[in-house]
Request: fold
Amino acid sequence: MLPHLTRRWPVYAVLALLAYPWIWRAPYFHLLGFDTLLGATMAVSWNIMGGYTGYKSLGHSAFFGLGAYLVAIAANRWGWNPLWSAPLLALVVVAVALLLGWIMLRTTGSAFVIATIALLLIFRLLALNLRGITGGAPGLSQPLPPWSPEFSRLPFFYYMLIWTLVAVAVSAFIVRSRFGLGLLAIRDDEGKAEMVGVNTTLYKVLAFGLSAYFVGLGGGIWSYFQTHISPVFAFDLRIGVDMILMTMLGGLGTVWGPVLGAFILIPARDFILFRFGATQIHLAISGALMLAIILFLPRGILPTLQEWLERRRAPASAFVGARLMTELRDESAATASTPPGDPHSRVRPAPR
Amino acid sequence: MSAAGSPLLWTEGLTRSFGGITAVKDCSLEVRTGSITGLIGPNGSGKTTLFNLITGIYAADGGEVYLRDRRITGLTPSRICHLGLSRTFQITRLFWDLSVLENMIVPVRQVGLRALLGPGMYRHEQERALVLLERVGLTHLKEQPAGKLSFGQQKLLEFASVLMSEPDVVLLDEPTGGVNPTIIRFMMALIRALNREGVTFLVVEHNMTVVMELCDHIIVMNHGQKIAAGSPPVVQQDPVVLDAYLGV
Amino acid sequence: MSLPPTSVLIQVAIGGLLTGGVYALLVSGLTLIFGVMRVINIAHGAFLVLSAYLAYWLFTLLGMDPIVSIAVLAPLFFVFGVLVQRYLIARVRQEPGLLVLVTFALAITLEGVMGSLWRTTGRSVRTAYTGEVVPLALGDLTVRLPIVQLVGFAAAVIALGVLYLLLTRSDLGRAIRATIQNPDAAQLVGVNVALVRALTFGAALASVAAGGAVFSLIWTFNASSHEAWISKMLSIVVLGGMGSLPGALVGALIIGVAEAVAAVTITTYLSPIVSYLILFFILVFRPQGLLGSRIREA
Reply:
């Protein structure tokens, strides 16, 4: 996304991540690393719907919890190893998301956001009450990983790293594909997209389903990592909030923004938890941070940085040297207006 | 492609009301293959509503729309677009954050897996887009976000982009509204040239000079109904039309 | 699942109606905010709980009855609401998806602050009359009504009456109704829409402050209660029709009774699912609700 940075930086980043657990050997750092990668994977996934398509779901924790429960249930009942069942069962999560998306995506704007919250609450309530399947409020335990507890977090770290890379690759592929172009078009102007032949319903439902995959997968791996899960933690609204926060901080609708956001937010939050202890303060800080991002950094770090770099490289107008019909520009001054407060300072015709 | 002169797009008894106000009432009209048909009428006479009904944005309360021999009433706008009907908007609508070139590519139709997994743009699509951009004089801005163009440039880009879906008929909603005389002349020349290349047009326009000069057939609407139709001189002489524009 | 006897159902239905009256007060501000500025205020539940905490505080420290504390809380929240609208809501790009996130962020900020200040213990105000009931004879059937419910209902009716008078008899009320109808036209005829929005937010929070005081009498709460409550409040206004005050009243009574009946016929634990399902399906299939106009944005 930042073409002027060296193209090889992802390789260095991956090498650094491979080395990370051997440089910081304390179990705490392995836990932190796993949490960060889990957050990054899910934020990348959420971004497909929330960033590219512009439909900001607050209820993606529903898919996280669903993935977590499916993996735990399969491990208990049929002895499925989560390491291979998580990616498989995440497909079931996708199927559920496709079905729900097909129902829900006739709503737009805030109605969609509220519907996603309702969805999460319904899922949580079902997890609490279908005791025969979910174990009710106390939750479910599943077998411990077979490897020695001494380095128990290390395999999880590397396994999660693989999926983070896959998620980023999928996200990068999508944004460069025709499908992704359609999603960006929907974000900009859904009615117009439909009008020029984009099957918006299909695109939105597919994006919703796809964005549930890595969230469901993350839930599955998390469930194995935790060995015990309960409705309150698996279907926690905050998990979805974190996905949004990370994405918005790093850059909504960019490939690397959600990853960057995760690598800033999760260590920062751990530090805050370490410093202040109380989890409630962390909630207040999350909320305040979200407000601050929306108010002061609405486009996130990466797009703001990119714009700043571009402006430094080409200080004059980008239109300089363009062989313009001068008339076009003259009349534009008379008829166009710039909406106040719009960070893009788009030139749009004044509504008649 | 239908033979020149045969009906390409037509409506039968199209009706639509909004909470007691009938915006379009029992409207039957036809657009012949190869024509530039004008649609005129006083403000609020139902022209834009008619466009929205034809293109599937609104559902009709009654009546039918046909494209070639196919009934397109009730289809989704994207489906109708695939069948060969495109439109522009009275207030220009573009994908503001996407580049000029991307704005051209979105309307290009891809089917099946290619639509989902294919690359953002194929070389041949890009070439075709560049040819069209050259015609409207926007090639040098192809990497710019559409939101950064001037008003006139946006209007030209919208026009060029709807051609990318290779439509048989294009509905233009005030193509010369709010632009300066130079662009009006440019736009008219472009419409004529494209028409010679086989594109049929249905044009809503308030500028009577443009309508009379450009169109070979004119339909007049008032109060949601078709009140007259014919060649420009015929319509200009029609007392019913004069009454609609001047009378009370 | 067997149906309980009629006498129980009648008792439950009357209780549900009383609860519904209180619900109407809780959601009136939510629907007013949506009507005037097309903002879905997800922080409404958090403001409700905040007001309940303050009422609890005033009761514990000063022995002030929650109903009396409305006189303190409502003006306080009015000022708070004006400030929130002016310095937060009005500053954000007016895009529905983003505005929802703002109010959501505000909600979890408040939850975090309240959770840190007052821990997670469930609180409720226990006055001298808490737990007392009034028997009401209906023919040969005696219905027992808890006093707190009656007091809450009465307070809700009075507060809603004040709100109704404000909307119908005052200049501000006329300006608010004009803005709900058509903000552009209201501006054209000289309504200061920016001011109306700020004052509406203030009035809405004042109403939820009154609601919170009543709330502290009837229900137990902690900082995270707002999640369940905002969902319930949203289902009420969505059912009635976003932005419609009569709709909110009808929705509140329906949900109040439906919940009470569901609690005795299904199970207490699962009964909230009724309102979540209502919320979900109405949003999806009938976004205009019973009496409102369609949620139309952008």
